[in-house]
Design a protein that fits this description.
Elements: E1 17-23, E2 28-36, E3 44-52, H1 63-84, E4 95-101, H2 105-122, E5 126-130, H3 131-137, E6 152-157, E7 162-169, E8 172-178, H4 184-194, H5 202-212, H6 244-257, H7 265-293, E9 300-304, H8 311-320, E10 326-328, H9 339-350
Parallel strand pairs: 1-4, 4-5, 6-9, 9-10
Antiparallel strand pairs: 1-2, 2-3, 6-7, 7-8
Helix pairs in contact: 1-2, 3-9, 4-5, 4-6, 4-7, 5-7, 7-8
Organism: Ogataea parapolymorpha (strain ATCC 26012 / BCRC 20466 / JCM 22074 / NRRL Y-7560 / DL-1)
Domain Gcp-like: 54-344
GO molecular function, one term: metal ion binding
Amino acid sequence: MLRIKTVSRCWHQARTYRVLAIETSCDDACVTLLDRFDPAQPPRVVEESKQTLDSAQAGGVIPTDAAVHNRTQVAVLTSELLAKHGWTGLDRPDLVCATRGPGMVGSLVGGYQLAQGLSIAWSVPLVGVHHMLGHLLTPRLASNGQEPQFPFLSLMASGGHTMCVLSRSLVDHEILVDTIDIAAGDALDKCGRELGFRGNMIGKELAAFLEQHSHEWGQPVDFDIKEPLLNVPGRKNMLAYSFGSFISQVRTNMSKYYPDGTLTDAQKARAGYRLAQTVFQHMVTKIKLAMRLKNIQVDSFVCSGGVAANTMLRTMLRAELPEIKHFYFPEPRLCTDNATMIGWAGIELYESGVRTPIGKSVVRKWPLCELDEYKV
């Protein structure tokens, strides 16, 4: 049986302080002000601000467009929030936290270089935060870092990442299952487009459409979707996700059953439900496999990231993981990319003694299991 030692929380900083948090890893320019008014209580979220790139007509996020968007928007948002709340001059923030990676380099640079500049100008510490660590720690914000206690399991599912993680401490994380191609959110966006959905956040629109047409769930429809990476001769117990195959399966179904590319709302709801159900079942199947093969016994489970806001996924996790006693789902606004999660993760790191050298640059790839720079 896997035995894990729980790491107790150690406060490095006791005084009250103010935090500026910045997130620009993809197509969102996000800024949050947090007030650490009492170390014994959760920080107060003073205000959040967010501007998302409109990529509907482009059919997806174009990195150069996202980079320009973030560079132009994040400074404006930061300036507006600081001025609005009087966090200027002697009342400036005491700590700057910003996403350093992983993500699209052009997007990351817009926010992180601003954070570096403000850290220098104000002579205050900088904490460069791992984007996925922000998602993973989000549920701990409400309890001031008390719940969930380490160790715990996480499913982090978004447009850029999908992985199952075992977290033993703030800086010790083991990736149990990762995707071998694309993330679940990316696949749902592209599959939704094949089904006829249009917009800036297609996966979210698909989920909302399915909720509105829940009476069609499970009804017959010409649409064949199979769960990938199941056991077959020559391949057994593969701890990996594959979401790219769902796109090809949807395209095959559209060509076979709906060659004109048109579905009625009923057909769209039934096909969309079958798609979402199989995608989420794929996630759960591999989580259960990892728990069995590695004999993992934990009480708490976190589901975070943009896809985590989906109620169908949350219901399935609760139903299929009865051994888990406590589930933690961030409120919807904290599931998608946001600066509040970066601020909270930065606070946890800062209070454990972490400071990021001002010369550190952004990183496109940064495995969550490689956080040695946070070990102090």
